[in-house]
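Hi everyone, sorry if this is the wrong subforum. Our group has a chain we'd like a structural model of before ordering constructs, and none of us has done structure prediction before. Sequence below.
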Amino acid sequence: MSIKYISDKNLKNLEGKTCLLRIDLNAKKNEEKEYYRLQVIIPTIQKLLNYNIKVVLISHQGRYGENPSSLELFAEIISKKINTEVEFIKHLSEAGEEINKNNFKIFLLENLRFYKEEQENSKDFAKKLADLADFYVNDAFPVCHRKNASVVEITRFLPSFGGLHLQKELEILEKAIKNPEHPLTLILGGIKTSDKLGVLKNLWDKIDNLLLGGGPANTFLEEQGIDTGNSVKDNSVKNEIQNYAAADKVFVPVDYKIEENQISDIGEKTAQIYADVIQNSKTIIWNGPMGKFEEKKFSEGTKSVWQAILKNKDACIIVGGGETIFSIKLLSNHLLPANLFLSTGGGAMLDFLAGKRMPGLEVLNKS
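Answer:
Right subforum, don't worry. Here is the predicted structure as tokens:
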């Protein structure tokens, strides 16, 4: 994908200008994924500041009409992380004047999801945003599968580039699916099966092992004729998984932890089997915890997968999805090895791996 990313060469021609930088702050305060998503965009911000460029940060949190939260608290958080004062702008109508009259180098606009026009990909709303800057940078992979005004329509009005983390994210994901080192192991868990089915279909001929937990595991167990009681499962994909369920490369739990007729975690035997597969893999892609890891008694399965992954120092490892990344807190010491990459995208990662259209990337490819 021939996206133009920010570089010393093109930023030299934009020195002293104003940049509209799309980031992703769609997380609650104190969540692990919030701080990770903030950390990864710092190199892009610093790169822009090196060229005396004003940076106008734009993001969303929640959905329009569902009581989205203010982003004001993030101004202080970002300020501390980059050791530069961040000016919060509450009203979009006042943004242009505030940016022009102040000597601040970084500004943060209020939550874009306060405006229905953002989710409607409104041309007029995108133009209002575009009027605040001289060029646009997208460093928010998690929203690249959304057709929003600040992601898609905005590129009609400003010279547009990809950010440094977006570049890294895409390079790692593309390598993992186009030229993976084998054995390639795909680990799918969480609640839903339908939203991961596209990944399974697109990567089926490339994967060597499929390890299942949570809802996907229960769905496959039912297809194999095993009654999972009241466990979370997705009967809507029953016909679509028939061709996969009996394959030798599919691993489903051989034991599990049950409460109130519900499978809530994989068992010790399954955890050991999965750990052996992970240890012998050269490429690993993981999305979705193994069970109800928020409850300590059902956290061991997910914890064991993390432990196995961190022991593999040779594989290219990609972990994505908010809950999956958040679950790393199950480990008392979770320093990440160099061979492990945390994807900022949840739904975006799944869509990319499924080979679906990514509107936010397509427009950057054309700009």
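For your construct planning: The domain at 8-164 is CATH 3.40.50.1260 (Rossmann fold). The longest strand covers residues 18-22.
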